[in-house]
Amino acid sequence: DMEDIDRLSRQVPHLCKVAPSTQKYHMEDVHRAGGVMAILGELDRAGLLHNDARTVLGLSMKEQLAKYDIIQTEDEEV
């Protein structure tokens, strides 16, 4: 319900705006910056994912992020 959506939207950081694309930013920019796995990696580092959940690849989200998340720094300036 809307209360759940409101509660979650206050907890989850705004990482990027990609929909709709603008004249300045496009979906290709998300891909070049690491794609969905980079976004999921940021959510995981913020403690906002249940990383023990299994994905369609049969891996846990934690295992999948270790394999595919290209951002491997703790520097918040990245």
From TrEMBL:
GO terms for molecular function: dihydroxy-acid dehydratase activity. One of its GO terms (cellular component) is cytosol. Residues 1-63 form the Dihydroxy-acid/6-phosphogluconate dehydratase N-terminal domain. InterPro entries: ILV_EDD_N (IPR000581), IlvD/EDD_N (IPR037237). Transmembrane segments: none annotated. Its EC number is 4.2.1.9. Keywords: Lyase. Belongs to the IlvD/Edd family. This is Dihydroxy-acid dehydratase. It comes from Vibrio parahaemolyticus.
